[in-house]
Design goal:
This protein is α/β, with parallel strands linked by helices and 285 residues long. It contains 10 helices and 6 strands. Helix 7 (205-222) packs across helix 9 (245-256), helix 7 crosses helix 10 (261-273) and helix 9 packs across helix 10 (261-273).
Length: 285
């Protein structure tokens, strides 16, 4: 029997997407937030279509969760593609000032065009958009220097659109995470699940943990130096070399969790998400 595909499109996301598309007509600047561990998988394929020619700021959040070498490689690749990525750690405030400066600069240009047409300047309207749990609300709280929107490391915390006044020059729209109605790329969907950027109802924990182990083994072989050396062996004192991801989980469960494979799966995913396996990018350019 085949494993069901990973799919998650709860009602609040469908409703929020409809409201977001309406509000986008009023927006001047778009801050697209992605997960730095998976810059490709956490890119919504419809964003460019939605925003058209509006200025866009590409924010790669959770930069603390990847190595400096992985960051450098992604910066080079994205710049070669004509992008200017801004790397942030919204939880700690790293990189936030640069994002704010660029957003204000884009707003200044918009108001200059208003003045040229004889119109009064107004606060620039920006929207923070991206997949669930990539750090959008934490970014807004950092831009404000205070906690005004609920933020937590789990998907689905923000459920309604809300305008927040950042300053006399800038208004920000905090929007719930958006997802495609159908996740056609299941390898990308697995990475979203590993990184906790999609609701738990979408996936089988043991399957996702086994996929993470297989992916870590693959990345070690492909890109030595971009990952910590032997992250699974260092953490669990168990070499994944002879095992498939599924078999590794079963052995880990026997050695550490009284044979409870579900507990082993949850623990290994939590260890990755908390950075206890080290700074690891799951996608490399």
């Amino acid at each position: 029997m085949s494993t069901p595909p990973i799919q998650w499109y709860p009602g609040h996301i469908a409703k929020a997407e409809k409201a977001l598309l309406e509000q986008l007509k009023r927006v001047d600047v778009v801050l697209e937030v992605r997960d730095a561990r998976i810059p490709r998988a956490s890119h919504h394929p419809q964003i460019q279509h939605w925003i058209g020619t509006k200025p866009r700021v590409l924010v790669l959040n959770r930069v603390d969760a990847i190595s400096s070498l992985a960051r450098q490689r992604w910066q080079e690749r994205l710049q070669a593609e004509g992008e200017t990525p801004y790397f942030t750690n919204a939880q700690k405030g790293q990189g936030i000032a640069t994002v704010a400066e660029f957003t204000q600069s884009a707003g200044w240009q918009i108001n200059q065009r208003r003045r040229d047409r004889g119109m009064q300047p107004r606060p620039v309207r920006a929207v923070v958009i991206g997949f669930p749990n990539v750090g959008k609300s934490a970014l807004i709280n950092r831009l404000l220097n205070r906690r005004v929107v609920e933020s937590a490391r789990r998907p689905g915390v923000t459920r309604q659109l809300r305008w927040v006044r950042i300053s006399d020059q800038l208004d920000l729209l905090d929007a719930p995470g958006v997802l495609p109605p159908l996740l056609t790329d299941q390898q990308a969907a697995l990475k979203l699940a590993i990184c906790d950027d999609i609701g738990e109802a979408a996936y089988d924990t043991q399957r996702v943990a086994a996929a993470m182990i297989d992916l870590l083994k693959q990345l070690e072989g492909q890109a030595p130096g971009l990952l910590p050396p032997q992250p699974l062996t260092a953490r669990y004192r168990l070499d994944p070399g002879p095992f498939s991801g599924e078999a590794y989980l079963a052995e880990l469960a026997v050695q550490r969790y009284q044979g409870d494979v579900e507990r082993a799966a949850r623990q290994s995913l939590n260890d990755f998400r908390k950075g206890l396996l080290g700074a690891i990018a799951l996608e490399l350019p």
